[in-house]
Amino acid sequence: MCAALAxxxxxxxxxxxxxxxxxxxxxxxxxxxxIMMERRLMEGVPVNEETLAIDAIKMIGVGNDFISHPxxxxxxxxxxxxxxxxxxxxxxxxAAGKKDVVDVAHEVVVDILANREVKPLDAxxxxxxxxxxxxxxxxxxDRVKKQEQ
Length: 149
Hints:
Distance between the termini: 51 Å
Strand content: under 5%
Structural class: mainly alpha
Strand order of the largest sheet: 1-2
Number of domains: 2
Radius of gyration: 24 Å
Shape: elongated
Number of helices: 8
Helix content: 55-70%
């Protein structure tokens, strides 16, 4: 979260391990979860009667348990809303199989690889892409040829 607080607007290396020598789809998903939480943090947290939980404070009273109150769990996700990280209570997490974030990310990767259907590019988009690549290739080869002379 430090990057978000410092005002960073680009994060490099999602999915990389070992200084970029290794790439992990699971790590990319985990990094994406963290990046999305940072983005949510940068948007700010709404401060209103509901998020301040004024009614819950009045009902529960000073010195009592606010953590288990439904409003706490409802509002906790406002600041980040992770897709992979499990914020369930320990007992619930154990009952659900004690999957850590890497296991959850792996299940998502397997599902995406097995079930994701990639829509082909529209013909006009592909033609434009091919033209951009052709121009970039030609500019590169022209530059190399010029250097060789």
